[in-house]
Amino acid sequence: AILDLGAGIDSHFDTIAISGVLRQRDTSIDRLAYRDGRFYLPRLVRGERFATNGTTLESDDFKVLAPDDGVLDSIRFSALKEIAPGAGEVAIRTAGLGVNFRDLLNCLGEVDGPAGNQLGAEVSGTVVAIGDGVDGLAVGDRVMAFCLGGMASSVNVPARQVIRVPCNVDLIEAAGLPVVFTTAIYGLRHL
Asked: What are the residues whose beta carbons fall under 8 Å from the beta carbon of 167, sequence distance 6 or more?
């Protein structure tokens, strides 16, 4: 177990409280912080809606935008207006997304180019619509894709950048495969 005491122990009471917790030997607690007479445990809880800058999104359709000021605390959610896929495009309802070093650099304002403030270069999810001229994919297919602005509840992607997820691969885990797989293939074939 890891015990974070912050600046340290201030009183005899603190020592007694901490020793009491440590004697419990609760194996489900692997990390614990103690501040100003209170214990804190890491816990994730589902919020009701995404909130950003004091406003609440009214829909489950959102996108995540890089900060304009290069400060990670300024990452923001924005409402997403879903648009029907154009010719040669596939609309994907996102299940998972890959987060890459490029996303961090983008957030810090270190990337110039077409990405702008869009985050996410790889996603996985389910096809919810297909545009004209798309062959080999159908609504309901489990897919992974390269995209621009993939940190969103849904994204339209050129069909040539989309591939089905094999049935033995978890849909969420598949989100991290496109960049890694492509990097490996490039290295094996061209370096």
From this structure: none
Q: Which helix (H) or strand (E) holds 31?
A: strand 31-35
Q: Are 82 and 94 within 8 A, CB to CB? A: no
The residue with tokens 């015990």 is 3
Contact 63, 83 (CB under 8 A): no
User: First-to-last CA distance in the chain?
Assistant: 45
Torsion 134-130-88-142 (CA) sign: negative
State the Cα angle at 188 between 187 and 191, rounded to 5°.
55
Q: DSSP assignment of 160-178, as one string?
A: GGEEEPPTTS-TTGGGGHH
Tokens 């049935």, residue located? 167
- The DSSP annotation for 84-124 comes to ---TTEEEEEEEEEE--HHHHHHHTT---STTTTB--SEEE
Is residue 20 classed as helix, strand or coil in its secondary structure?
A: helix
Which tens digit of pLDDT belongs to each residue from 101-117? Answer: 888 888 888 877 766 67
Characterize the bridge pairing of strands 55-56 and 2-4: unpaired
Q: What is the pLDDT of residues 134-191, one digit of tens each?
A: 999 999 999 999 998 899 999 999 999 999 999 999 999 999 999 998 999 999 999 9
Model confidence, pTM: 0.69
pLDDT of amino acid 152: 92
